[in-house]
Amino acid sequence: MVAEFRRRKIPIDVVVQDWMYWGKYGWNALKFDESTHPDPSLMTTEAHRMGVKVIVSVWSNFGVSTDVVKELRPHLVPGSLNYDPSSPEGRRAYWELVDQRILSRGFDGLWLDASEPEFFKPTGGDRGTYTFYTGLRDSVLKAGRGSRYVNAYPLLHTSGVYEGWKSKYSTRPVVLTRSAYLGQNRTGAIVWSGDIHHDWGVLKAQVQAGINFSFIYPYWTTDTGGFFSGDPADESYREIFLRWLAWSVFCPVMRVHGTSYPKEPWRFGKDEEIVKSLIELRYRFLPYIYTAAWEVTKGTPMMRPLAADFQDEEVLDVDDQYMFGPSLMVSPITFPGGRREVYIPRGKWYDFWTWEEVEGGKSVEVEVPLDRIPLHVRGGSVLPLGRPIEGADLEQDPLELRLYGEGSSSSELYEDEGDGLGYEKGEYQVVPITRSEGELRLSDAIGNLRREHTFRILVGGRVWTELRYVGREIRVEVQ
């Protein structure tokens, strides 16, 4: 699959191995069935050779017949097949097993699926025949009674993996999980919204969920197109998938996942090029998105309700538009057809696609084709974009600095090595960008990392000038 992405020149950075790899070894055995995965390390090596990282699904509960459950028996919750993460010894034992069997084999991240214990109790007396049953409500954890502490399970579970990872590896912990609890954002884990259906009502609800959740937990994602997805050969499903994908471009994390039908871009027939163009759009925005992710460390969520930024009374009633980073307002299409009403907050705004100026403080009707999403840029903004690339580690120069409207503003462009923990010790570069009347200033770089860039300055949709930045201040007149 990765080779086909590369052959078609469709950008991709990560693939996720779901739970089907256990096979004959049983539920969450943390082993690869040789009949389907004869050489997992070689598989990962080949993916790495093509510039793609691999994440593997692991769970917090285990099949009763697996050898893992035997090793973890002292750390299981009484009456359950879940381990007890409220116990430091339990967290350590779980981490060591996952590290030994998965991460140490060259994989790049973990998908902590079903990280919230489920309460369904099977009929009959053999709990071990139904691995989803946890018994936590009636059991006693190390921390205390399960009914009191069960909501904190994902926090303790994720924290144990995060702490174990940081104690051993110099790479950044990469964890995707289904549930969260207050304080879990300090682990940097990505939370997705669970197994959802595909229809327009669900899509709108996902937009609202993302806005709400991301306001306090920055790294959120959705199963684009729905986990229980439709048939790419069905034109009505292709429409909802493309609208969902266009919205996912402007989510903190963009990913496609689902069951029932395959979702590779080439499965969408004549719309493959639209799928490809939307993925390329995400990659073009990487300089902006990565900077917005850095702003999270200073307390600014990437994805915010309009009421967080604007005082207009009208924004209190807008639940399907949001700010993404400092400059972009995103207004997803969540129903058939390409038209929708967009509220424009007070001030000057610009249509991202046409550069047309829009005066704020009112609602406007917009219409966009399937390869676009309504996007508006705050007046005075400097928007950094890169050229289309097939992987996030590739060079994106020349970078565009798009100047929208007039006035004074300040912003930054952040970058680091993309992995590793050097940024914690100042191994990054911040380029301060300041606009004043008729002038653009790129100030001396901040941080211990030095990157040179060619910047192409765009004003009103046309190239104004091009300059080379080597970490020292540059001033340029613009009109």
UniProtKB/TrEMBL annotation:
Residues 299-383 form the Glycosyl hydrolase family 31 C-terminal domain. Residues 398-443 form the DUF5110 domain. SUPFAM superfamilies: (Trans)glycosidases, Glycosyl hydrolase domain. One of its GO terms (molecular function) is hydrolase activity, hydrolyzing O-glycosyl compounds. Keywords: Glycosidase, Hydrolase. It holds the Pfam family Glyco_hydro_31_2nd. Residues 2-292 form the Glycoside hydrolase family 31 TIM barrel domain. One of its GO terms (biological process) is carbohydrate metabolic process. The keyword Metal-binding does not apply. It comes from the Archaea. The keyword Cell inner membrane does not apply. Belongs to the glycosyl hydrolase 31 family. This is Uncharacterized protein. It comes from Sulfodiicoccus acidiphilus.
